[in-house]
TrEMBL record:
It comes from Thalassospira alkalitolerans. This is Glutamate decarboxylase. GO terms for molecular function: carboxy-lyase activity; pyridoxal phosphate binding. The modification N6-(pyridoxal phosphate)lysine is found at K313. It comes from the Bacteria. InterPro entries: Aromatic_deC, PyrdxlP-dep_de-COase, PyrdxlP-dep_Trfase, PyrdxlP-dep_Trfase_major, PyrdxlP-dep_Trfase_small, Pyridoxal-P_BS. Belongs to the group II decarboxylase family. The keyword Methyltransferase does not apply. Its cofactor is pyridoxal 5'-phosphate. Keywords: Decarboxylase, Lyase, Pyridoxal phosphate.
Length: 477
């Protein structure tokens, strides 16, 4: 029996507006070919585009929605004309803001496929998605040098949500230690929950607010002079002085500015001694484990109770993709479980719906899986090593420059520096650098000084890009 044509077989209930969708389905090949051309042009052209767009006044956010559409090809044309010229080339090599990964070709097509197949990756019912996510989590553990059997986890929308899960699971575990079920009875039932952190990332502060703990409600631990690293003696004193029975320590493996790594072995020892949950924010730092020159920085990570990491930064998969790992998956599943008769299943496998914030979930394991299959461990190792070398190269150049000052030696992939003059002079200098369209950097304040961050996390960065960056800085100094 031949398959009915998408165009021909229309029931009277299909309105003319919905015919547009069936017509689009019929000509999907043409639509994808146009989309493919547009994508190729954008992705391959990203090296030569202005790195950021500074004027998007041509786009009217208040324009009314069309009553009648004209189908996908028309929308593609509109996107190409009205949106694409106004984008940042953040997938290109000289976007040095935040910690922004690009997208490798395999990850890109993995993401395309993810949209096309549109699985709801909740669990093992009727689709292999859960098994793929499980495999990806195993591979991620291998990449981070973590023993497979010890950690399990879930893919999230980003490191911010992974940090949130660390707080939620840690709080639940702390309650369990003293006979309080936070999941059932609420955080109010937990007497005196104390959080200790030296250099929590901004996302963690946000998560303290979201969880109802409170942005200001953590014990600030001192940092070692001139670093963002936890002062171990101070942490020990503060843990010893605490009267709280529920304690959680937030440590860092790669801070966002100085890329400092905490002494995780010492912190894990203290957490064991004082009965505290150890959460490590290793959003991008976890992948330093791939670089044999830096893997030692992660000693002790395997003793963390929970770990935040991220795919859309250094693994160069498209947004969004965060990673959460824990040694206590049952605790996480207690805090995040979704219960309703219609959600029950007999299928065997991990129920990712019970491991995070969302119930319905994008199949975000697929872009990661594609990139891992396509490039292997060696591919990611090369990205990490190259980006670290580039950060060092820029730092060396700044050190020798008579008008620039290096704010800290980069330990990983971020170079922080400042130009001559006051903070205001430096703000103006940053604007001038970014206005060239040749690079994009974000501001920071380090050691009380206003400066610039150049974060190297893109697989496309090559030597000649570094030369362009140096020439551009010189041209506006
Ligand atoms: C150390 C660290 N943690 C957490 C985050 C938050 O990541 P995301 O924006 O992907 O949620 C970042 C982002 O740069 C980071 O560097």
């Amino acid at each position: 029996m031949s398959r009915p044509s998408n165009r021909a077989e229309r029931s009277p209930t299909v309105t003319s507006a919905r015919h547009l969708m069936f017509d689009d389905l019929e000509q999907l090949g043409d639509i994808l070919a146009v989309a493919s051309d547009i994508t190729r042009e954008f992705v391959q052209g990203a090296d030569d585009m202005d790195v950021t767009c500074r004027d998007f006044s041509a786009f009217d956010p208040l324009r009314p929605m069309p009553g009648q559409g004209r189908g996908a090809l028309d929308a593609l044309r509109a996107a190409k004309e009205e949106i694409l010229p106004l984008l940042a080339a953040s997938i290109g090599p000289r976007y040095l803001g935040f910690v922004t990964g690009g997208t490798t070709p395999a990850a890109l097509v993995g993401d395309w496929l993810t949209g096309a197949i549109d699985q709801n990756a909740t669990g093992p019912e009727g689709s292999v998605t859960a098994a793929v996510e499980e495999q990806v989590i195993h591979w991620l553990c291998d990449m981070g040098g973590l023993p497979r059997g010890r950690f399990d986890g879930v893919l999230t929308t980003g490191a911010t949500v992974s940090n949130l899960l660390g707080l939620v699971a840690g709080r639940q575990w702390c309650g369990q230690q003293i006979g309080v079920d936070v999941d059932a009875d609420g955080a109010g039932a937990l007497p005196g929950f104390e959080i200790f952190a030296a250099s929590p990332h901004a996302s963690m502060i946000k998560d303290l607010s979201i969880t109802g703990i409170g942005r200001n409600n953590f014990t600030k631990v001192a940092t070692k002079p001139g670093t963002e690293e936890t002062d171990i003696a101070d942490l020990k004193n503060r843990l010893a002085a605490s009267t709280s029975k529920a304690k959680l320590v937030i440590a860092s493996a790669g801070t966002v500015n100085a890329t400092d790594f905490d002494n995780l072995v010492a912190i894990a020892d203290l957490c064991a001694a004082f009965g505290a949950w150890l959460h490590v924010d290793a959003a991008f730092g976890m992948f330093a484990a791939l670089d044999d020159r830096r893997a030692h920085l992660l000693s002790g990570l395997d003793r963390a109770d929970s770990i935040t990491s991220d795919g859309h930064k250094w693994l160069n998969v498209p947004y969004d993709c965060g990673i959460f790992l824990t040694r206590h998956i049952n605790v996480l599943e207690t805090s995040c479980r979704a219960f309703a008769p219609y959600l029950q299943t007999e299928a065997v496998g991990n129920m990712y719906i019970n491991r995070g914030v969302e119930n319905s979930r994008r199949f975000r394991a697929l872009p990661l899986w594609m990139a891992m299959r396509a490039y292997g461990r060696d591919g990611f190792t090369d990205i990490v090593r190259a980006n670290c070398d580039q950060a060092s190269d820029l730092a060396d150049w700044i050190r020798d420059h008579d008008r620039l000052e290096l704010l800290a030696d980069p330990k990983l992939n971020v170079t922080m520096f400042a130009g001559p003059g006051s903070d205001d002079d430096n703000r103006a200098l940053l604007s001038r650098m970014n206005a060239t369209g040749k690079l994009f950097m974000t501001p920071t304040v380090y050691g009380g000084r206003f400066g610039f961050r150049a974060a190297f996390s893109n697989w496309r960065m090559r030597d000649h890009d570094l030369e362009i960056i140096k020439d551009t800085i010189d041209s506006v100094l």
